[in-house]
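Weekly structure sync, notes
Attendees: PL (lead), two postdocs, one rotation student
Agenda item 3: pending single-chain targets
PL asked that the sequence for the first pending target be pasted directly into the notes so everyone works from the same version. It is reproduced below exactly as submitted, 313 residues in total.
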Amino acid sequence: MTELARKVLIIAGPTASGKSSLAIDAAKMFDGVVVNCDALQVYKDIPVIAATPTADDKRQVEHRLYEIYDCSKRGNVVDWLDLCVKEIREIWKTNRLPIVVGGTGMYIDALLHGVTPIPEIAADCRTKVEEKLAKYGLAELYDYLQQIDPQTAQRLHPNDKTRIVRAVEIFLATGQKLSEWFQKPLVQKLPEAKFTVAKIMPSQAELEARCRERLDIMVYQLGALAEIEKLLKRNLPADLPAMKALGVPELSRFLRQECSLDEALAAAKLHTRQYAKRQRTWLRNKLVADVTFEQPYQGQKDYLQQIKIALNG
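Predicted structure, written out during the meeting:
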């Protein structure tokens, strides 16, 4: 494999920073393929609320790993990483540049640095834990986790069903605590890659303004309420990732006539701002970048020139 064939461009940024547009323009300039690194854009049926690339975006350049799961599925970083690595290697075979774009820090970190080597959990073990949960409830399952792995239990909220179930599954399947697995060396899934990282880091004030504007556009112009209404009709569990997407819980309250639209939008905007702030904190403190942009991407040609220099560096 040549040096050229091993390159991967990562474009990271908080929500509403323009990273998807930058990825499209970078794909045009560098003969690239855009690969999704957003934990919500993997789901079908919520393209508006998840700000998934549009049909027009996908016509301009090739996009992969978008809208691949039904909203009933619980996506996770391990499954995404396996799919992403496979896509990157396929893109290399066509002598094009993989451009991985998103704001999910856990996914970016896994691609760059690897994951804990926890083995695949057998289906019968998953069923056993589901039966325990159904029979005894989440509180008792959390108590059980406190007994078998107090270190993990301490860092989890007692209502965090997904992670509590996962920790119990891992203990029952492997005989080792999740906290012990986390002490093992990470396994790098793409050791041959040469990563170039670009991140967009707008000011908090500018990001908040863009988040507010985007939510208004989603609701008043793009049909977010109709999208959520269809989702609610499926009666999916409220703790599924798609059901917890920014805006879904808040606007669902309006659709159930539990509050006004203004109240629902205000709550959605608050939670979106809080999420964007957490993303900025992670990006600032945890992601080392080859190039950092301090303004949202709005077609600035120098952004692409700086990425070109970094890719060739």
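Discussion points:
- Strands lie at 7-12, 32-36, 63-64, 97-102, 194-200, 291-293.
- The chain has 14 helices and six strands.
Action: rotation student to compare against the earlier draft before next sync.
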